[in-house]
Design a protein that fits this description.
26 strands; 2 domains; Nucleotidyltransferase, domain 5; 9-stranded mixed beta sheet; Rossmann fold; 10-stranded mixed beta sheet; 616 residues; globular; alpha/beta
């Protein structure tokens, strides 16, 4: 047997192996081979694309070997969309290195994502942790905003940073939750357009991934991007007849009064598919393009009805809880169906129909009220205060309105406000009189310093300094207050547009129930004119539609609207602190009614009260 070493053959084979193209590998194949979900994941351990088969084609379109340049995913929640993006990040680091730019709505979102998702993903996969620069105290190569690896780096930027979006050319671009981006990045323009401009030098080799749940119709970035694509939908086979069709909400049915038993009716044979059959339906599913598109953009739309992590019964139960309340139904439509929402706040609300709905409940609070909050607005010669009662599912009652006349730069008017905030209100149930649980005071205007000083010593009473801020994607109540103010006190930035959107949608509700707003018989015409003083308009800035609230007429007073907004924000502040509103409302309704000989506490009757401090 000849065992001699053939050096020429060895050298030739080595040359051929080195010259051969790198084996093709898709993102889904990489994930199945290498991705490890950390212990804190819902399903820790080895990633399995078969668990979420609808993600396979999306991930494969992000692969270096796929000719698609732009991938758009418009989706509901609980579908693994973010994990899809994380798999792509791991694939790029390990298999197709290059400069990747990840953009999220805010810097806080970047920090949370790095800590909760990206760092654990790298730590769990040895081939990634070996490639990414080790974190060191003075080493910028591994931080919350940058991960350097051989042949590339991952740079993470908030959508509010125009400088960050302009400064980094990138082959790979991951735009996450694009509908939560601001309309303008620090005065530099649309953050999506700025980011995509960073990829132009890689045209033909670039990959752009836009992923988001949608928001308002005709204002949604992800909807617009999907409409420009080939609009793929995921069809699944019917277990009864075998015909393929997409799963839609209209197909979900349940026996009368039994939403947990929801099932899917086939649009072809009308046979029912049970929840237990969903995994097999997903495994046999296929993506089908419904439009021609531009040839470079693959668009995918999928709802939570496909989720293996949430049942049709659970989705139906949640629908039953929110369908009568427009703001919560909007969130359900966006997050469950992955569909945009028609703007119900866009139509102006008239004062007269609201005034005609006034109710008489006397000196005792209605049975549904469990919590009181207040909103305070400062004017040059007065302070205005509105007290709102809250019940189950944020049904609310306007309990009291006070105008405290006097100069807010002096102490007297503030002393009167303090007394007003100490007021208690007798309830029709046999419970102790209710006090105001939380107060939001607007600190804008000419009396900011005085407002800061008033709030500084009353934080224990939950009297909070706030500042209203308009614009999209600003939460009603922030995760944490800012202390970047002259008073160095906790200052809560309130998303006033979000509150107004919800309020004006709810003002159209006429039947008692979730979200309905009730008015006492003592509210006058001026109150309703102020409450409805604004409307939504859409303007175009740099070619992009911008939605904003503005007065119906120049010079229109709107203190009743502002104080209602602030009282609503105060409720959200309580909820972030752990208030269980529905629990307290249920307990209140279970309390016995007051007997005929019960006497309400002495307080100012529920009417528009005027206090003139200038004459005291």
């Amino acid at each position: 047997m000849d065992t001699s070493f053939d050096a020429a053959h060895w050298a030739d084979q080595l040359w051929r192996d080195g010259a051969a193209p790198e084996p093709t590998l898709t993102v889904s194949e990489w994930a199945d081979a290498h991705r490890i979900l950390p212990d804190l994941s819902a399903e820790p351990g080895q990633w399995r694309t078969i668990r979420v088969p609808y993600l396979r084609e999306i991930m494969d379109c992000l692969s270096a070997c796929n000719p698609v340049e732009r991938v758009v995913l418009i989706k509901g929640g609980q579908l693994g969309g973010t994990e899809c993006g994380l798999n792509w990040i791991g694939y790029v680091i390990h298999h197709a290195p290059g400069l990747m730019l990840l953009i999220m709505p805010t810097l806080d979102a970047i920090k949370r994502n790095t800590t909760a998702r990206i760092d654990p993903m790298i730590a769990a996969a040895p081939m990634l942790s070996d490639l990414v620069v080790e974190p060191r105290a003075r080493e910028p190569g591994n931080s919350q905003f940058r991960k350097i690896f051989p042949g590339g780096q991952l740079v993470m930027v908030g959508a509010t940073s125009g400088v960050g979006l302009r400064s980094t050319p990138a082959r790979y671009l991951f735009l996450d939750e694009v509908d939560a981006y601001p309309g303008d990045a620090g005065g530099d323009g649309d953050p999506v357009a700025l980011a995509i401009q960073r990829t132009v030098t890689f045209r033909g080799r670039r990959k752009v991934f836009l992923c988001s749940t949608p928001t308002l119709k005709n204002l949604s970035r992800i909807e617009k991007a999907y409409q420009e694509s080939d609009r793929r939908r995921f069809e699944v086979p019917c277990p009864r007849c075998g015909e393929f069709a997409i799963i839609e909400w209209a197909q979900i049915e349940w026996p009368e009064g039994q939403r947990p038993l929801a099932r899917r009716a086939c649009p072809h044979c009308h046979g029912f598919a049970e929840e237990r059959e969903k995994p097999a339906m997903l495994a046999g599913g296929r993506w089908v393009a419904t439009a021609e598109g531009d040839g470079r953009t693959a668009g995918f739309h999928i709802s939570t009805l496909y989720s293996p992590f949430e049942t049709w019964g659970e989705i139906a139960i949640e629908h039953g809880q929110v369908y009568r309340d427009p703001p919560r139904l909007q969130a359900w439509t966006n997050n469950k169906l992955g569909e945009t929402w028609e703007d119900q706040a866009g139509e102006a609300v008239d004062a007269d129909p609201l005034m005609a709905r006034r109710e008489h409940w006397g000196l005792l609070l209605p049975a549904g009220i469990a919590v009181l909050t207040a909103g305070v607005d400062l004017q040059g010669d007065r302070i205005e205060l509105q007290v709102v009662g809250w019940g189950r599912d944020e049904e609310c009652w306007v309990v009291d309105y006070k105008v405290i006349w006097g100069d807010p730069s002096g102490p007297k008017v503030w002393a009167d406000l303090d007394s007003a905030l100490y007021a208690t209100y007798a309830h029709c149930r046999a419970v102790p009189d209710l006090s105001i649980r939380a107060v939001a005071i607007d600190t804008g205007g000419h009396h900011t310093k005085a407002a800061y000083e008033f709030c500084r010593t009353r934080l224990a009473r939950r009297i909070w300094a706030i500042k209203g801020r308009g614009g999209p994607a600003i939460p009603v109540w922030p995760r944490r207050p800012s202390r970047s103010n002259k008073g160095k006190i906790p200052l809560f930035i309130v998303g006033v547009d979000a509150v107004k959107d919800a309020l004006f949608a709810r003002l159209k509700l006429t039947e008692a129930g979730p979200g309905t707003v009730h008015f006492g018989s003592d509210r006058d015409a001026d109150y309703f004119r102020q409450l409805t003083a604004e409307k939504v308009v859409t303007r175009y800035e740099r070619g992009r539609p911008v939605r904003m609230w503005q007065p119906k007429r120049e010079g229109e007073r709107n203190e009743a609207l502002d104080t209602m907004v602030y009282a609503t924000a105060a409720l959200q502040g309580l909820i972030t602190m752990g208030l269980r509103l529905n629990f307290e409302a249920t307990a209140m309704l279970a309390a016995p009614e007051k007997t005929g000989d019960s006497k309400p506490v002495s307080r100012t009757p529920v009417r528009r009260r005027v206090i003139d401090s200038s004459y005291m």
